[in-house]
Every structure is written in C-alpha cells, then in structure tokens.
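We close this part of the discussion by returning to an individual protein. Part of our work consisted of pairing the sequence of a single chain with a tokenised description of its backbone. What the numbers capture is local backbone geometry rather than side-chain detail. The amino acid sequence and the backbone structure tokens for this protein are reproduced below.
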Amino acid sequence: MTHHQSGRTVDHDLYVHQVSESEKPLLVNGNAAEVVVVNTDIHPKRNEHWKGATKWKWTAALFILGVLNYSCRNVAPVCAVSMGTQLGWDKAQTGLVLSSFFWGYSLTQIPAGYVSDVIGGEQVITLAAIGWGSLTFITPYIVYAFPDKSLQMTILVIQRIIFGTLEALHYPAVISLVSRKIATENKSSVYTMIVAGSPVGVILCGSLGSYLLHQFSWESVFYAFGIASVTWALVIRLALMTSEALSVDYIKRSCKEIFWKRKDTQSEPIPWRKWFRSKAVWAMFVSSFCTGYVFFLLFSWLPTYFEEKFPEANGWVFNVVPWMVGAPFRVICGFIADKLVLKYSVTSARKIMQACYGVGVTACLLLFTYTHSYFLALFIISSILMFDGFNSAGASLNPNDLAPEWAGFLYGFSNTAGALPGFFAVYISGQILHSTGSWASVFTSTAVISAIGSLLFVLFGSGEKVS
C-alpha cells in the first residue's frame, strides 16, 4: 500500500512511522523533519488479519490438512496387526514401532512453536505436511528395503521418531497462525473449526483405512493417505500463498531467523521470566496436562474396556460414533466462546468454557464407574468427547491470549505438558488394572485429575496478555 505525502511516495510495507521517545527530532530550517524508520522485517505482512473469503479459504484448507494429519497419525495403528503378522513382529516389537512416534512428537513441541512464530505458520505447516506425508507414503518401501528384522526395526523406529517430529509442527503452527491472522472476536470459532479436523481424521482413517486394508493391503493405506497429504499441502502453497513466500530465497532468509533473530524486526523479545512467574501460565500448563491425561487414557484403554465389558458389541461403533459427536460440537463451542468474548471478556469466556469441560467430563467419568449398559457407556464416552469441545475454546486456545506474539512457542510448552500423559496415563492406569482389576478405580482417579486441572484454570487462569 502506498501513501503520497510531502511530494513523495512512502511504501507502508517498507516503512514504519514510529520513533522512540529517546530520539530527538531532526531539525531542517528550524522545523522538525519527518523521520522515517525503515522496517527491514522480511515478514512485513505477517500480522495482517485474514479477512472475508481469504479467512474462510484458509480455515477450510487447514481443516482438511488437520484431517489428513490425524489420518496419517493413525495409519500405523490401523495397520499394526496386519504388518506384525506379515513381518513376524511380536507385541513388544509392534509396541516399540508405534510408541516411537511419541518420542519425536512430545520432545519437539517447544521448538516447533518457536519456529512457527519466527518464520510464519504457513511455511511451517505446509512444509511439515509434505514431510510427514512423504514419510507415510514411503513406509512400505522402507519395510521391504531392509529384510533383516533387526535393521528393519531400527530404521522404522528412526523413521517414526522423525515422523513424530514433523507431525509435532502442525498444531503449534495452527496456534501461531490463528494468533496472528484472526481477529480476537473470531479466534475461538476459527480455531475450533480447524481442530475439528482431528476427530474427522480418526474417523476417516478408521473407515477408509480399514476398507483399503481389507480390500487391498496394508501398504495401500500408507500410499493413499501419504499421497493425499503431500498433494493437499502443495495445493495450499500454490493456491493460497504468495509467490514471494514460495521463493527459495525467502525460505532461506526465513530459516536464518530461526538461529539468528534480527534485532531490527518488529517481533517482541520472549518474556521468559514473566511467563514462568505467571499463575495464569502455570494454570494453563496444569490444565493441559490434566486434559491430556483424560484424552490418552480414553484413547488407549477404551477399546480394551469395551471388549472386556461388552464382547458382543461391534468394534467400529464405539471406535467411530463418539468421534462423530465430538467433531461438530467443537465448532459449536467455538461460536459460543466468541459470543462470550463479545458479551463479557476473553478471561470470562475461557474460564466458562473450561469450567463446562471440567464439570461435564468429571461427571461422565464418575458415571462410568456405575454403568453396566453398553448403550449408556457409548453415550458417556460420546458425551466426554462432546465436552472436550469446551476445552478447545478454553485452555487449549489460551496461548493466543497470554502471548499473542509468541503464541505458537508458548503453545509448544503447553502441548508438551499435554503430551506427557501419553506415557504416564497409560502406564498408571495399566498398573491400577493389574493391581485391582477395577475399571471404577481407573475412571475415578481420572475424574479427580480432570477436576483439579479445570478448577485451577478457573481460579488462576486469565485471558489477558502476560506483561
């Protein structure tokens, strides 16, 4: 955009009319001359909000990419039994291959958020998708390229760690984009529409993936979702990103900023001390850990619970129906949160949404301890995933409020706390079941953890920027 002033043209993409108080005005013939400070930031439009059709195109594109992200994440678990049978893996080897994903995913959330904030979420999320999509596609080739089982396992574990690392870039990049590109009054609805792709991805992989597995082979599942992911990432880059952002030179300059953050850019310094002295930040971390504990416990143990309690039930019903309920309700919760932001405040909206999550999920987990009906159990788990939508518009979105300039980076810390229960929740609940054989004990202890996380957020959480 250009502006004509004083007989000359000023390009506002290159110049910023800001002078610090300590700077003295330049006098020309006794009059103060205009001071123009050059903004050499290579991302001058990074904080411009998406508007109109552009906003909805990006929202739809990121929703579909989220579907593919979770689909690729679930390809290996869907194919694990067939792969293990064909390749002669025992349960320990299968578990090693599947669990190695979490090492890459859990340990790279923080750098993923930092990279997204520094070079831009658009670059990170699409380039990462090309990476994890390609690794999904070539997995069968890796398996057959190394017939020696020991070497095969080693290479697959390394591949799964790298795959998890690339997948870890997705949601910090989403948070970073929402923080910079979406106006405050629309953040909740846009974010929940994007993350609604996660349960849809689980459904898609569970249904289409199972069909391809039984009609063709396990290899076809990897091929289909891998090529779909790479193709869609390329479509986003070519259709929605500018030609400048796609240039090799632009990408090189952006990558340099990861290791050498220029002092002349407009980004704020990272407020480390303020973050880790803030009760609101710690309340968000604890809430993320507790919601992650609930999620991973249900994700890992519910199939076993239903098979033990209701062996006559159809597996696809309890593996698909709850996710079908959860996806649309996330979007509904986003619009509710936006209304609350306009009517009250960001802080009130986040606390109300998280309180609804805590009350609903805790009550459902306690009901689990008393149910002996298959349909009631199915209703309860569907309700838990429905209430999870409140968390998506509550504590999950809170990094946008507390650190808008570094939302992806702070989300990396928060999501690391949420990913840790992937190890702890499954192990602790397994020990409880081994010692007591009581599902009631598992669900009761999880209900207590859920209540603690939400209560602390309601008491100490905030929707204001940490300053």
About this structure: The two ends are 32 Å apart (CA to CA). Residues 1-28, 32-42, 262-266 have pLDDT under 50 and may be disordered. The chain has 20 helices and six strands. Residues 52-87 form the longest helix (36 residues).
